[in-house]
Every structure is written in structure tokens, then in C-alpha cells.
Amino acid sequence: MSHLFYVFAASYVFVALKAVQQRHVQHNDWWHVMPTSLCMATVEYYVIAQVIRSGYGPGLVLAGGLGAGLGAMSAMWLHNLHLQRKSK
């Protein structure tokens, strides 16, 4: 059961990092692209290893999907918060 929590957390972090990476690319922030990509690879390959170890199943899909969705929503919320601070 704990592997599902770790897949949830890794998916959350992975999608949040994808959003951050997208912002780096949009703003030509060259120096942050590579470290973000390495972090993304770390959590993505962790999830792949968990699928290999535990097998594919509905629990894994649910954990990964919920983590990814909440990671995207968190990234959107943080981005909007950042934009609000910049406009003040």
C-alpha cells in the first residue's frame, strides 16, 4: 500500500515539475532547464520502476492520476500566486 502513496507523490512532483519546465522554456530560462529535467527524470523513472515491481493495476493508475492532477492544479495555483505578487 505504501508504494501507492509514493507513486502518488512522484506523479504529483513530476507534473508540477513539467509545469515549471514549461515556464522555463517560455521565458528562455536556460540555466534552469537542465536541473529541472534531471529532477523530472528521477521521479518519472521511479514511477516506471514501481510499475515494473508492483505490476500495472487500477490502484496504481488511480494513485498516479490523482497525484498528477493535483500536481497540475498546485502548479497552476502557485503560478497565479506568483503573477499576483509580480503585479503589485
Give me some keywords for this one:
91% helix; mainly alpha; 88 residues; single chain
Topology (SSEs and partners):
Blueprint: H1 2-26, H2 30-54, H3 58-87
Helix content: over 70%
Extended strand count: 0
Question: What spatial form do the alpha-carbon principal axes imply?
Answer: flat
Q: Describe the biggest sheet? A: none
Model description:
The chain has 88 residues and is mainly α. It is 91% helix and 0% strand. It has three helices and no strands. The longest helix is centred in the last third of the chain and has 30 residues. The model has no long low-confidence stretch (mean pLDDT 89).
What's the quick description here?
91% of the residues lie in helices and 0% in strands.
